[in-house]
Amino acid sequence: MEPKYLKPGWMNWAGSIILSILLVVIGLVVLIAGNPGTGITLIILGIIIILMVVVKRATWTYVYNDMYVETRKGIISKKTSQIDLKDVKNIQFKQSIFERIFGLGTVAFASAATGSIEVAFAGIPDAQKVKQEIDGLIHSVKSGTAGTKKCPQCAELVKNEAIKCRYCGYEFEQQ
Ligand SMILES: [Zn+2]
Fold it and tell me: What is the pTM of this model?
């Protein structure tokens, strides 16, 4: 399975975004009111804050596939945390009041090794759906059915790449 990449929702930085809009608006008012020095300073400050949000979100990635879950953070030094799906002890859906307002949620993964949360997809859209999908992936890894598909003719499990069922000879449609 190709890895899927997720980003936190913009509204994780709602405070910074509102602040930068305020700074730009106030800066424009001050500028028009006849104080260009202060006005332009406020506008630049607002732009810097929004750029910081853009950079932070761009360097913040959540990855999952049928083998692992992973978070990547950081601009210069990348900090990566990963847990193998077979080592996930439990998976939790969390939602702060703030996240609920903006339709975001957090999916957190505890590893069997430490029992504590080591990977968290914080502030993502459709968090419930992502949790369900990863729940399914973990289930298939732990039950040994990962990377397989069910033959529609004999209901046996064969490898995803198979073009012909090894039990009954059913030929799968080529993709
Ligand atoms: Zn078959």
Answer: 0.79
